[in-house]
Amino acid sequence: MNRPLVYTVFIAAVLGLGLLIGYNNIPGEWYQSLAKPVFNPPNWIFAPVWSVLYVMIGIVGARLFLDHRRTAAMRLWLAQMIFNFLWSPLFFGLQDIASALIVIIALLIAVAGVIVASWQRDRASALLFLPYLAWVAFATVLNGSIFLMN
C-alpha cells in the first residue's frame, strides 16, 4: 500500500470535510446573541485551531489504518470522527445546545479512548491526540457553560 498516498487521502478527507462542515455551519446572529462565559475565545481562533487539529487527526487516522486497522483504536477513531462532524450541525445548524453537549461528551470519551487504545501499540498516535483531547475538553466545558447560561 502506498503509505504517502494513504496519509494524503486521510489528511485531505478529514481537513476537507471539517472545513466544509465549518463553512456550512458558521456562527451567526443566534450564536452572537447567546450568553457566553468569560473564557469564550474569539471566533477567529476556531478555524486555525481546528485546521491544525484536523491535520493531526488525519495523520493519526492514516497511521491506525495502515498499521492497526482492526483494532479498538481504529474503531474509536472512526467514532470520534462521526461525533466531531455531528457537533457543528447540531450546535450551529439546529441550534440545539443540549444535543450538541451530549455529542461533545461522546466525542471527548472517544478521543480519550483512541489515546488509551493506541498508547501501547502506537505511542506517536496517542501523543498526537493529546492536544485534540485538551481542545475537546475545553470545548466541552464551553458547550456546557453555554448550555447552563442559556
Strand-residue proportion: under 5%
Low-confidence sequence ranges:
none
Distance between the termini: 50 Å
Question: Averaged pLDDT, please?
Answer: 96
In total, the number of domains comes to: 1
Question: Total number of helical segments?
Answer: 7
Structural class: mainly alpha
Computed over alpha carbons, the radius of gyration is 16 Å
DSSP E strands, number: 0
Can you walk me through this structure?
The chain crosses the membrane at residues 5-24, 44-66, 73-92, 98-119, 126-149. This is Tryptophan-rich sensory protein. The protein has 150 residues and is mostly helical. The chain has one domain. The protein is built from 7 helices and no strands. It has helices at 3-24, 29-33, 46-67, 72-93, 97-118, 123-128, 130-149. The longest helix has 22 residues, at 3-24. The N and C termini lie far apart (50 Å).
Concise synopsis of the structure shown:
The chain has 150 residues and is an all-alpha fold. The chain has helices at residues 3-24, 29-33, 46-67, 72-93, 97-118, 123-128, 130-149. It has one domain (3-20, 45-149).
Task: Please outline the helices and strands.
Layout: H1 3-24, H2 29-33, H3 46-67, H4 72-93, H5 97-118, H6 123-128, H7 130-149
Helix pairs in contact: 1-3, 1-4, 3-4, 4-5, 5-7
InterPro entries: TspO/MBR-related_sf (IPR038330), TspO_MBR (IPR004307)
Protein name: Tryptophan-rich sensory protein
Keywords: Membrane, Transmembrane, Transmembrane helix
